[in-house]
Design brief:
single chain; 199 residues
Length: 199
């Protein structure tokens, strides 16, 4: 199998700069000029790789989703019990949020800002969330079949619940700067899972 082509260094600088600015200022307030200045490249370099800011946004969202997905997969891939895999993903989310350099989730931040103005970016955000909850729900359903098959609760729906708790916690962080919100709220979610699954 052929290895994926390396991303040019200039393009990486633009994406890194855009991610930092968009997580700090938002999508609308981040101009192409600001991205170029932060990346230390010319405007001509920007337009060599991207026809417009929205094209950069598409690549940036995909890159962020791939990186986060790889991080979650690495945390859970060696764990055999599906419920323990869910716990490992929660631990990964908490650790990511507690890192001093973390500014939250780019997908969630952009989804809140551009949902009614940039439909293609919104669809990318929606697709990322849908893919994540589908994978998480599959483990939660498998865990129910394994640990409490006769219990009467919607295991698949817990994937959306988890996403809501995590994204809500990041919204609280962005509003008030409280990194501990993620750990506190996911502790409540763990307690709820323990009641449902009996473990």
């Amino acid at each position: 199998m052929q290895a994926p082509a390396a991303v040019p260094a200039t393009q990486t600088k633009l994406l890194d700069a855009a991610e930092e600015l968009m997580l700090t200022r938002g999508y609308g307030a981040t101009s192409v000029d600001a991205i170029c200045a932060a990346a230390g490249v010319t405007k001509g370099s920007f337009f060599h790789y991207f026809a417009q800011k929205e094209d950069l946004g598409k690549v940036l969202l995909k890159r962020f989703a791939e990186r986060q997905g790889a991080r979650f997969m690495a945390a859970a891939e060696t764990i055999e019990d599906p419920l323990e895999r869910v716990h490992a993903i929660m631990d990964c989310g908490v650790a990511s949020m507690q890192a001093p350099e973390s500014k939250g989730c780019l997908v969630g931040a952009l989804a809140q800002e551009i949902w009614d103005t940039h439909p293609e970016l919104r669809e990318l955000c929606h697709g990322t969330f849908t893919q994540f909850t589908a994978l998480l729900s599959a483990d939660l359903v498998a865990a129910k079949a394994r640990h409490c098959p006769d219990a009467a609760f919607d295991a698949a729906g817990l994937g959306d619940y988890f996403l809501s708790v995590a994204q809500g916690s990041m919204l609280l962080f962005r509003a008030g700067g409280e990194r501990a919100a993620m750990a506190r709220n996911l502790t409540h979610f763990r307690d709820y899972l323990r009641l449902l699954y009996g473990r």
